[in-house]
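Tutorial, part two.
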Amino acid sequence: MSTGAALRRSEPPLVDGEYPFTQENFRTIAQLLRADSGIHLPDAKATLVYSRLAKRLRSLGLKSFDAYCALVSSDAGGDERYAMMAALTTNVTRFYREPHHFDHLRDKVLAPIADKIRAGGKLRLWSSACSTGQEPYSIALTVLQVLPDAAKLDVRILATDIDPNVVETARAGVYSDEAVSPVPKPLRDRYMKADRAGQWRVGDEARSLIAFKTLNLIGEWPMKGRFEAIFCRNVVIYFDEPTQNTVWTKFRSVLEPGGRLYVGHSERVEAPGYRTDGLTVYRQEGAR
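Running the prediction step on this input gives:
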């Protein structure tokens, strides 16, 4: 037995459970997740990590976290790295979450430039952590309130997420009756369609405005144009402070002068180049 294996076996488990789970196991998983996604896992998350990944071990037929860590650390473990990341990230979302953001988008961003867009100008918006799609569809419905003919105009919404599985769910645009309950009835009746099973499908007018893509916020961004508004809500709370500031700075570089950044209720933008423009809304300080 190697010295490293002997030391691992002598470590007390972090969590009492079906599989031994050591500090070294946790450290390996935390380092991989941070390298892949920027997410920082403090030690207090050990129980959560164990409970979510124990299901992966059962699914894969593995007998220990040592074996699981060896897999996700190997060249052959790329697919499981994605599965691990998906298991450890939280996709909490709903239609019109933080409703004041959509009021602000409608009244402060879209309404002042509506005539310009109708006259041939372009509008670009970005939902940068779109999860299962409720956020970008809420953005699209807000656009359609101001520009009912948006599908015929140069209007595009980019919706991205690091998890390809939730991107596929978002692209499908099918939700339960309960999930769509926050959508105002006039918008729901006009831009969504119900089926006999009680499911709602987002209609073509809203869907045609959105391009869904997989994107890692700490990786390379392929887009070249700039956005009037970016939504990045309840994401950077999982990053350490240097990574947060890096992401805020990158957002500023792709915002139109005076463009808005919408963040989560517990998040604050402290990178240079922004000023507050409402509750958890920041404005790029460049002049129009």
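Residues 99-118 form the longest helix (20 residues). In part three we will examine how such features are distributed along the chain.
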